Amino acid sequence: MHLRFSVAIIGLAVPTLAFASAFPDVPSSHPHADAIYDLQRRGFVRGSDDGMYYPDRELNRAEGLTLLLRAAEIEVRDVYKGCFSDSKETWYEATVCQAVHDSIVSGYPDGMFHGDRIINAVEFLKILLNALGFTIPDLSLGDQVGIDFKNVNVKSWYAKYLFRAMEFNLIPAELIANNDFRPDGPVNRSQAAEMIYRALGIAVAERSDIRGTASSESSITPTGATLVDFPVHQTGKTGERGASAFAFDLKAPQTILVEAANITSTSTGVSCFLYLLGESGFSSEFFIGYQEGGSCYIRAALRAGRYQVEVRTKSEGADYSLDAVAANGDGNDGFTEAVLLPVSSPKNAQLIAQDYEDWFRFRVDTKEAHRVMLITSSDLACSIYPSEDVDLFGFEGPVCGESYDYPPGTYYVSVKKKKEAAGTQTYSVELR
Question: Of the candidates 309, 326, 343, which is a domain's last residue?
Fold first, then answer.
């Protein structure tokens, strides 16, 4: 998914330094010389025994974490130990356990820290932002549309950290050259110094600001949506980028119907989105509306939680109406009702009148090739969504009808109408 990053960059207050050589192998012509010198001056970076800095040397996770805690001036106390079995009695055990205690790192799914592994770009950004006290808002759909890198999946755990780092212009140019950011790419010592230098140049108050839109009003969520009661009944004019968003809470699981309309112009239409606001990070449970004429519809079975519903028109200032109300479904209307799709066991189904979308799921335990086939004479759309338990590094996203080497995890398949909501359309879907 290749999308355009279009957010306004928050002003970066980095002091201009008169460079003085910090290390023999960091000449004044080095692109990150000022950053390295500033961190050396503050005592955050140190040379090797031979007096060299080795700017191109890649950092491992233990080294990167140590550097970041030092730059954040976090005191490491020896009382925190035993947090990871693979860090016991290492030189960095206290540092890692301090970071765990302060909710800066959490380790890998296997329960290990893997301190000797080379730290990758998104791991470094996450620890940097957490250690220095940046708030990390969940991403709206507009934010996701704003991320435009060849190897980035906007549904990944790291997307919100990347977005925040881009807002504050923390990432060195060579890591994002040619629109090609590598989430799992290494970070070397000079790049680490540059990112820390830039982050330290941002005032603490700015770090905790929510994209310059922080509000004392409790009715505004961290994503910028207006918090309202359910059921939702709203009319108005679409705001910046032609979007208006509202958040609401569901106390218990239920099926809802979202209806949005472009009152100004039915010919230009309207799009609508609904997604779960995760407690930490972007949730992979989201719905894209069915569009017909000047209206947009979503029928979705939802778990309890906080949701954001968004209406979007092609231009700002369009009059719209938006309703989200309790509704009945057919028992196959979302992630929570997705029907199990075993291998080589096709499911035959129908999308009846006003039933816009059906959902299926399958799980892959080891990396293996599969093909999801949609067989129908109707005009239907088929999409595959990796769940949050899928490792998405370097994973472009599967497409129905094509063979993919699926990483382990859970996947959801959506079969959706493209026209004639009032009609009945028959299909078969199979995992091969």
Answer: 326
